[in-house]
Specification:
Chain lengths: 117, 741
Amino acid sequence: MEILLAIMTGILYAAGIYLILRRSLVKLILGIVILGNGVNLLIFLMGGLVKGRPPLIPEDASALEGIFADPVPQALILTAIVISFGLQSFAIVLIKRAYKVLKTDDIDTMNKTDDIT
Amino acid sequence: MTWFASLLPISLFIYFSTFAKGVMNGEIFNFFTSWVPSLGINLDFRLDNLALLFTLLITGIGSIVFLYTSQYLKGHPKLMRFYVFLSVFMGAMIGLVTSNNILTLFIFWELTSISSFFLISFNNTEKASRKSAIIALTITGLGGLALLAFGVLAGQMTGTYSISEMLQSPEAFASHEYTGYLLLFLFLATFTKSAQFPFHFWLPGAMKAPTPVSTYLHSATMVKAGIYLLLRFTPHFEANPQYFNIMLIVGGVTMLYAAINTLFKTDLKGILAYSTIGALGIIVFLIGIGTSASITAAIVFIVVHALYKASLFLVTGTIDHQAGTRDITQLAGLRKVLLPLSIAGIIAALSSGGFPPTVGFLGKDLIYEATLHGSISPALLTTLAVITNIFMVFAGLLVGVKPFTGKLPEALGPIKKPHFILWFMPMILAALSLLFGLFPSMVQSLFTNNITPLLTGENSPHLAIWHGFNLILLLSGITLVFGLGLYFLWKPSHQKEDAIAKIEGYAPKAIALQFANLFQKTSYFLTRTFQNGYLRRYVMIILVLLTIVFGIHIFINPRIFLSLTEIKSLNWNEIVVLLMMLISILFTVFTKSRLTAIAGMGVLGYTMCLIFIFYGAPDLAMTQFSIDTLTVILFVLVLYRLPKYLNLSNKTNRIRDAIVATSFGTFLAFTIIEIMNENPVKGVTQYYAENAYTLAKGKNVVNVILVDFRGFDTMIEISVLAIAAIGVFGLLKLYLKKHEK
């Protein structure tokens, strides 16, 4: 499974990058979302995969012992998910507003801000 | 009130004069403070007779220039700025000549270059001024870098950055493996600063600065910094004949080239610029002869030149100030209105030409004495010196005498009498030229007697105005006669200036400018190629570079382990999740409908949840689930306000992007597999696993990390979210009212 997930990470990166290289703003944002998923999966993989053993300390113990999923990448990913939500929601609203003002979502034609009246 | 600023150089002059008696008796004053001792950089100042000579020149001529400026630039809106730059320069220059640490010397050296830049571009509304300033900064800055290289290399070779302590390792300067580089860097630094051929061309351009600057920086002091350094390192290189021979050649070429150029200039300052380059050439040439007599001659000539050239520059400045032109073909007969100035000009011209009884005569005497007793080919050296001096006589007379003689042309219009400062300051300098000439023993006792014997075991010659009839007197006579002849026969004109300008396409200046142009075009091209303003170009460059790095790494160490057993051990639910992921990605990327793309993105998020659930991360699954849902809802809410979902780029671009994206993804996947084969370091994990409950009383370790161990980070994260929320609200709700647009 690790190897398949590693390949899947590669696919997520490729798809994300391809969309980021588009000229359409909506695709750019979708690309960022997919790339974000790829990054999360990458961090998750780096911690090592452990099936069905979340990092929860049992009732009768005072420390994690034996085999357990690594909590550190999980904490990192949790932060990343929340932050990327902030980024995504802002970006979505931003392109909506930009489209309304500039009447375009083509990045190449957006650099003429002087034309706004 | 502006004369107030002059108190600074005057008091410094008095201060340094108090050391004169001690230094003349052979004392050396030291001042030492550690600055960066670990790097060997210390504020180590040392006042010996060479340094004292220069400090007195800097502060003495500085006093005169400061006073002169108070009238010359009277009422100028940026006068205070001018004084600031001038003071910065003076401080840096004093630091330069007193530094005993080669690295602090470098810092002061750069400061003089920078203040020179600001002073040349003082009239910064003129394009020519700015251009000249940039050329000067480029050339002297290049030399500064070479000086740093010299300092570091010399420091490494001798084990000390102290100039006086370097003397204890003479082999570094004579016959070390890297001695050649030392010479290269030192000469690059000094020849650019002291305007030696082929780096001389910045100096005529520097004449765009106001005349006090030309007087002070570009004639009397800053351009002598290179000479100072050469003199300072003469004892170090004493056993190295190359040191002297290179100076002999470069100095010789410079003095002849510059002297001949004075024939073709019509601007008074242009003539003075080239005669300054010529004089600097003579000094380098004299040091290059490498005898005690020649070095004495060089030192005397530094004083002689500073006095007469500063005087001539100030005379020129006053003429320009009163008559409004510096064109030699238009100036004549000014003695009728500017009598005191004409006296100063004529005395300075006589000293420049070396007429007795001025100090210039002494200087020339010493030059001939040095060339006649030079170690190689005295006849050739003497001939060169005589030819150069003939042109110097000519140049001096042209600037100091020509504007005052003859009939006053009507084209000049009425000329007002100058303020007394404007003629009195050049007069002081001219008077000193005369005074030192009449009493040569003063020069002897003040400057040359005790200049630490730069060369061991030789005595400096005795100075006198009358040595009896001898060859030197004959040579002086020949020089004067020919110089006067040239002055009366050769009339500078604009035609001659234009004729010589045609050859200048091959001059070092044109070559350097072309090189600069090429440099500029190349960097423009590179910037335009790599930073063309389109986001995807930047992304593309970064990705292609990373792909190449990954690719090279994988081809060098192919350590990929694919085991089939793993594939066999897959569960059906894992296979389903992977397939769902793949399909949702394909939909998102290739669909032509916005809604499908967003739905695909949502499904992708949910499959991520499943993966998190399978592999022991329930917190992540919950977060991912809620966030993913929110994102999709937000997208759908604004969906119909969004533009149509079209392919904007053409097919070629799409294929190119697809290749870049897939190759990056492939190499990344390979790299991940490779990394997973390494043993991970779990120290941090272990710490949290052991202490989550004992220290933070929490059973959910992920939770504990977020809200306790890294609680501060989480707080900042929440703040980021809040800021994003405010931004979203602003973008949705805030609009300009009609009348505010």
